[in-house]
Amino acid sequence: MEVTEIRVKLVEDRDEKLCAYCSVTFDDCFVVRDLKIIRGNRGLFVAMPSRKLADLCPACRAKNHLRARFCNECGHALAPDRAERDGEGRAKLHADVAHPIHTAFREELQLQVIAAYEEEAQRADEPGYQPRHTDLLDTDDDAGEPEPPPAPPAEPVEPIEPPQDPPPSEPEPDPAEDKPDRRNFGEGILP
Ligand SMILES: [Zn+2]
Questions:
Q1: How close is the Cα of 64 to the center of ligand 1, in Å?
Q2: What are the tens digits of pLDDT across the range 77-121?
Q3: How many Å lie between the centroid of ligand 1 and the Cα of residue 30?
Q4: 180 SS3 class
């Protein structure tokens, strides 16, 4: 499988650990959004799109984030540290929604994404840089929001016939409100 396009949206604050969001297209036919490029202790890495893990309240069966200490629904106290731990002892609070299965492809993807990021970061240093792909910013909680449909082509505007009498070049100074009159002007001509 080939990566055929990578779109990168840099995060404004370059001091943040989160450097950019990106979307990746595979074989010109499948897009995965919401990958993140993160600056870790050992350099840049790519985080796959993920969702927050939740579990069920033992009292009312409502869903709660694993970090919640009390049930959102009934207020029942929830066990602290109930998240599973990974090999390095960190609480597992998120699960990938899309990810490579093989290390080789993971590394290949990561190389390409980081190269695309570095290219974009270089462009950002040039004068007159215009960020592209601002649509990539939505992530986490509002992920999955559908994109708005493409704007319809602008309808041809029918030429408006000029009014028969040219308007006075300068409206007479009128102490009374002249706005209503001006609004009426042209009525019946404009749709
Ligand atoms: Zn509950």
A1: 8
A2: 999 889 989 888 888 898 999 999 999 999 999 999 999 999 999
A3: 39
A4: helix
CA–CA separation, 112 vs 152, rounded Å?
Answer: 35
Please give the distance, rounded to the nearest whole angstrom, from the Cα atom of residue 77 to the centre of ligand 1.
8
Centroid of ligand 1 to alpha carbon of 91 (angstroms): 22
* CA–CA distances in Å: residue 135 to residues 48, 123, 131: 18, 18, 11
Give pLDDT tens digits for 53-69.
999 999 999 999 999 99
Instruction: Tell me the residue type at 58.
Output: P
Report the separation in Å between the CA atom of 141 and the middle of ligand 1, taken as the mean of its atom positions: 21
Global model pTM greater than 0.70: no
